[in-house]
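User: Teach me something about this protein's shape.
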Amino acid sequence: MDGYDDARRGQVPLIVSYKGSSRAQKGAREALLAAEADVTHRLSAVHGDALTADKPDAGKVWQALTDSTGGRSAVTAAPGIDRVWLDGRVKISARDAVAPDPHGGVAQIGAPAAWKAGYDGKGVKAAVLDTGIDATHPDLKGKVGSSSPADFPCYQWADINNGLKIRFRLTREQLASGHTLNIGITTAFANGRPRIRVNDWVSAVPAPAKEPTTRSLTVGSYRGNNHTYSYAIPASAWIKSAPAYQ
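Assistant: First, the predicted structure itself:
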């Protein structure tokens, strides 16, 4: 299949749905994790998960998905497993973009009629109104962290309220490489700037941002004093376990 050969992809992406008792489903998930499969997304719509498996581990994942107690000629789904799909890619041609589905998509909001009337969006101001997310949604539950306002105060002071700790997890694919962390500030006093630590790795002390000489706390974003610090975190900093928190 296009894009899934060994030269271009080292993993097999799958969608697995579950069935049966809670115990059977839990056992199926645990068997897949023990076979080195990584859960990338929970998919409540199909009562399942999106998974990736490194190709060298594909045999173990296949064993976790199937039950061959009746012999090789009678392979069935393992207890707790309902269906398995290849998480395939979808290609949209230029023709699809020019001639969209006449009954679905943008047709449902009357866009084609507006285009025919000469409305193309030029000169229209757009606003993004974001009310946030529902962290209790089945697709997000357990994946989105939560903090109280006290965890992220407006100002941080040395030896008073600094030392924030953020816990996160990375997939096996993400653990294979380093990543960049960006921290933005609006103002700083006396050359204050963040220094970060990830497990046993500690960043260098960055150069201070150019800030006005003042003790005021009102010289931040609206006066254009924003600054972003970037930290290149090496792959060696990670705990090499997808289930573990960094």
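Now, about its shape. The mean pLDDT is 80. Helices lie at 22-34, 58-65, 94-98, 111-116, 172-175. If you'd like, I can walk through any region in more detail.
User: That's plenty for now, thanks!
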